[in-house]
Amino acid sequence: MTFYFLTLFPDMIRAYFAESLMKRACESGAVDARVIDIRDFAENKHNRVDDYPYGGGAGMVMAAPPVLRAVRSIAGVEAMPVINTSPAGRPFTQKEAKALAREESVVFLCGHYEGIDQRAIDAVVTRSYSIGDYVLTGGELAALVMADAAARHLPGVLGNSESLAEESFENDLLEYPQYTRPETVEGVHVPPVLLSGNHAEIKAWRHRESLRLTEEKRPDLYEKYLQNQKR
Ligand code: ADE
């Protein structure tokens, strides 16, 4: 899967793909992360890509022409989803992450300053996503969150495929708690069932813990789970 990141801060993106699982995903060929610096598409001698907002107000707006040129520099972009990162976008969920992973190529347009000239958005953006109800200083973190959440659904990116099936949000439940050695930490023991070797009991305990945690921490998800069980 190819991710294109259109950004004013290319090193923020490169840093993420230089570590850990995403580095391995790039090395194995499962992921191709291409970073495009919007500033390279400025056509003035100071490489300016932002300007004052018409109508006044605080902050600067990313100008349309460099953004449009940057997007259109991608061969075949007409057939790709072009995603704008914005707190005003549709909430990005696990379902969207899985759907994104089925795309061959995805373009992320990372906004900065007070936003992007609406004419550039209208001309090239196919959807806008928000990663939560808070405002970031820029779209890079949001684009990386989405790319990461999608990439881990690609074959070979995670070490073992079971970690996908049992994790949080599958079946609308949060994941059960995990423990590893040592058996006792500051006087607190591992739940004995996990040492029992009885796989049926372990599975049942984990499911009960998932239910308990979801009801306690995410009553909205728990309600959804109960509704789905009734169907
Ligand atoms: N840019 C700034 N805040 C954002 C958010 N919450 N989601 C996506 N992009 C953003």
Describe this structure in words.
The protein has 231 residues and is an alpha/beta fold. The protein contains 9 helices and 9 strands. Helix 4 (94-101) crosses helix 6 (140-151) and helix 8 packs across helix 9 (219-230). The longest helix is centred in the last third of the chain and has 19 residues, at 199-217. It is elongated, with a radius of gyration of 22 Å. 26% of the residues are buried. The model has no long low-confidence stretch (mean pLDDT 95). Bound molecules: adenine. Adenine (ADE) is lined by residues 85-87, 111, 130-132, 134-136, 139, 142.
CATH homologous superfamily grouping of the largest domain = SPOUT methyltransferase, trefoil knot domain
- Helix/strand order: EHHEEEHEHEHEHHEEHH
Q: Determine the mean pLDDT.
A: 95
How big is the Rg?
Answer: 22 Å
Structural class: alpha/beta
Please name the CATH architecture of the largest domain: 3-Layer(aba) Sandwich
Give the overall silhouette. elongated
- The level of helicity is 25-40%
The portion of residues forming beta strands comes to 15-25%
Largest sheet: 5 strands, parallel
Q: What is the number of helical segments per DSSP (H or I, 4+ residues)?
A: 9
Number of strands: 9
Describe the structure using short key phrases:
9 helices, two-stranded antiparallel ribbon, alpha/beta, elongated, binds adenine, Alpha/beta knot, 9 strands, 17% strand, Trp Operon Repressor, Chain A, five-stranded parallel sheet, 231 residues, 2 domains
